[in-house]
Amino acid sequence: MGIQRTTLVIGLILTAGVDLRAAVVPRYSLEELTQNSALIVHAKVRGSWVAWDERGLYLWTHYRLEPLETIKGAGGGEITVSEPGGTLNGVTMWISDVVQFDQDEEVVVFLYRNPLGYWRVRGFGQGKFTVVESKDGGKTLHTNLGALQLVETGAATAAGVEARNGWTLDRLRGRLRLGGGR
Question: Which residue from 10, 108, 119, 136 puts its CA 20 to 30 A from 170's CA?
Answer without folding.
Answer: 119
